[in-house]
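User: Hey, quick favor. My workstation is busy. Could you predict this chain's structure for me?
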Amino acid sequence: MTTLLEQAFTAATKLSQERQDQLAQLILQEISRPQHQVNKAPTQKSPLQIFTELGLVGCIEGEPDLSTNYKSVVKSYILKKHDHS
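Assistant: No problem, here it is.
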């Protein structure tokens, strides 16, 4: 039975030399990272936090209940736009 490392090595030998070099570089980076950084789970930000940091929250003006009545808003916009009377 082959180990996971042996399977990875076998698969890596089938890659191009450039991809092998990139993979080796990634492995060496991971090995050289301090152990406390390896065990530390990355903190993920919520979409709201990301959008707020980018200045996108509150950057447009619209109806506060648009998420619930968007179909009627779009319909009235289309009717108004294409009203040829």
